[in-house]
């Protein structure tokens, strides 16, 4: 009977954790709560893997970045939980993953040819592109949809994902000057479309 009671208690705790938002889960992880970490992983890892695969076709790099990201989350959850910054836990998690992806590209660049970018595989609209287009209505949405794909890609990396010029260059495998030029062209095109 004790085993059944414990099992019911564990299931109840898992259900309770699954109902918490990501910020609360990170706060529990900061206190060393393994079950909260598991709940955070179950909730965010599918989304994170999709975003990483969108930027990198090499499954080995994606797997390494996922592992490094969640290890960093386990170790540094207190930094997020204790900050007074108004960011979201999901945004914090993506920032960690994005930095780890750029680091992985840099490491690989020293040893081998960089992996094929996901954008080179197939020209299929990404879910986040569709979501962006769906959430940005009116003139801004129209202007975004009319941008050339290479300009939209730079705009997405720098504005939405918050990458620096250098990080965007590594991520997209472009010279920094090209990234700056495309960012400038994207801003001009958006201004003209919205004028």
Automatic annotation (TrEMBL):
Pfam families: Sigma70_r2 (PF04542), Sigma70_r4_2 (PF08281)
Keyword list, A-Z: Membrane, Sigma factor, Transcription, Transcription regulation, Transmembrane, Transmembrane helix
Domain RNA polymerase sigma-70 region: 40-109
Source organism: Streptomyces minutiscleroticus
Residues making up the signal peptide according to the UniProt record: none
InterPro entries membership: RNA_pol_sigma-70-like, RNA_pol_sigma-70_dom, RNA_pol_sigma70_r2, RNA_pol_sigma70_r4_t2, RNA_pol_sigma_r2, RNA_pol_sigma_r3/r4-like, WH-like_DNA-bd_sf
Name under which the protein is recorded: RNA polymerase sigma24 factor
Keyword Transcription regulation: yes
């Amino acid at each position: 009977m004790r085993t059944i009671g414990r099992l019911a208690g564990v299931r109840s705790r898992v259900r309770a954790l699954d109902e918490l938002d990501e910020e609360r889960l990170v706060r529990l992880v900061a206190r060393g709560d393994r079950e909260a970490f598991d709940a955070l992983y179950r909730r965010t890892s599918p989304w994170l893997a999709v975003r990483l695969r969108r930027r990198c076709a090499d499954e080995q790099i994606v797997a390494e970045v996922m592992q490094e990201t969640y290890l960093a989350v386990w170790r540094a959850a207190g930094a997020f939980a204790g900050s007074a910054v108004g960011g979201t836990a999901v945004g914090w998690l993506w920032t960690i993953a994005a930095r780890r992806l750029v680091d992985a590209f840099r490491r690989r660049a020293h040893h081998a040819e960089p992996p094929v970018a996901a954008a080179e595989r197939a020209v299929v609209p990404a879910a986040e592109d569709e979501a962006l287009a769906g959430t940005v209505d009116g003139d801004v949405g129209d202007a975004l949809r009319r941008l050339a794909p290479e300009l939209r890609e730079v705009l997405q990396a720098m504005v939405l994902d918050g990458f620096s010029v250098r990080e965007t260059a590594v991520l997209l495998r472009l010279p920094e000057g090209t990234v700056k030029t495309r960012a400038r062209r994207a801003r001009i095109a958006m201004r003209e479309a919205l004028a």
